Amino acid sequence: MITTKRITVAIAALSVVAAGCTSADVAATVNGSDIQESSVLAIRVGNEGDTSVGAEEFRNDLSRLIFSEAMLLAAEEDFGITGLDTPEVRAEYLSTVGAQEQQYLESIVVDETLSDAALDVVVTQLVLRSEVRAALAADEEVLLDVWQNDINQMVQVCASHIVVATEEEASTVLARLDAGEDFAAVANEVSLDAQSVDGVLPCPISPAVFVPEFAIVVATAPVGEAVGPVESQFGFHVIRVDSREGPETLEELAEDPARWVPTETIDSYWNTWINDVVERSEIRVRSDIGMWYPPVDGIIPPPPSP
User: Fold this and answer.
1) Positive or negative, the Cα torsion across 170, 173, 177, 182?
2) Helix %, strand %, coil % for the chain, to 5?
3) What ranges in 110-225 are assigned the alpha helix state H?
4) pTM (2 decimals)?
5) Could you report the per-residue pLDDT of 257-304, keeping only the tens digit for each?
6) CA-to-CA distance for 124 and 136, rounded, in angstroms?
7) pLDDT average, residue stretch 195-224
8) I need a surface site. Which of 28, 55, 138, 183 has the fewest CB within 10 A?
């Protein structure tokens, strides 16, 4: 399941009385923006006309709306992104949604307790995630930080190797290659890595996925030249870098960040952004519902009556 942030809430077995409430009743505010009680009730099928709703269910649904509102407001403040919660934007997103997101959305659709309003909230959160991640990937401060601290994460290599048990065997392999023997033929004959046909490793790939000794070589060795022996926990390697690409300058990185910045790197900035959004948001919950409790990023129930 795709979530914005794990919410852990200590809930007592109470109920939220809904009788007599109108659409104007405010359940919570986020930076002065109201979340109506009717919007919370609309998330669940059959809530209309109920005289009471389970407290845990209500607080969880309200927490989801609080996160959504906080992110919508922050997206506008931080990146100037607006209109992400409109029907038109949701429809456009659904027309191009990826397989993973589609599977998650289908789990919402088949849940008979959730309404169309719940689906709208989830789609809005996915739109937020997509748009903010794209904005982060293009943000000057983020790109500078990536350039200064994670440049190796953006290098993509294609490499081949032959791994044997001893340094002497590796030296023999290197001598055979220097004498003109075919790399693939030697790899298929002697390499202990039977999964790498012709010695070819997954391509393209970041050097960071390899063990450190191997990663250093594939990140720095001359392209097209067999080098070794290189010792790792798997044995002694003879390595050939077949190609290596990466942005040469910060300007080149900024021209096409989607090409160079790994998904995992943007994930880390996205998670940091979410945490920052929640921490700097002023969140108030109506007292009879409970209280927003920052240590768990959720709503705790009101204290029992004396």
Assistant:
1) negative
2) 50, 20, 30
3) 116-138, 140-149, 167-178, 183-190, 212-220
4) 0.68
5) 888 888 888 999 999 999 999 999 999 999 999 999 998 889 999 987
6) 18
7) 89
8) 138
Here the tokens at position 269 are 């900035």
Helix, strand or coil, per DSSP, at residue 231: strand
Q: 50, 42 in Cβ contact below 8 A?
A: no
Task: Give residue 164's identity as a one-letter amino acid code.
Answer: V
Calculate the dihedral angle through the C-alpha atoms of 115, 121, 124, 126, rounding to the nearest 10 degrees.
-90
Rounded to an integer, the average pLDDT of 46-64 is: 77
CB 231 within 8 A of CB 171: no
Q: Give the tokens for residue 296.
A: 């768990």
Amino acid letter for position 287:
S
Lowest-confidence range among 4-13, 85-94, 131-140, 215-224?
Answer: 4-13
Q: How far is 4 from 264, CA to CA, in rounded Å?
A: 16
Helix (H) or strand (E) holding 104: helix 99-109
- What is the token pair recorded at 208? 């960071």
- Region of 49 on the Ramachandran plot (φ > 0 left; ψ -120 to 50 alpha; else beta): left
| Token duo for residue 67 | 């996160």
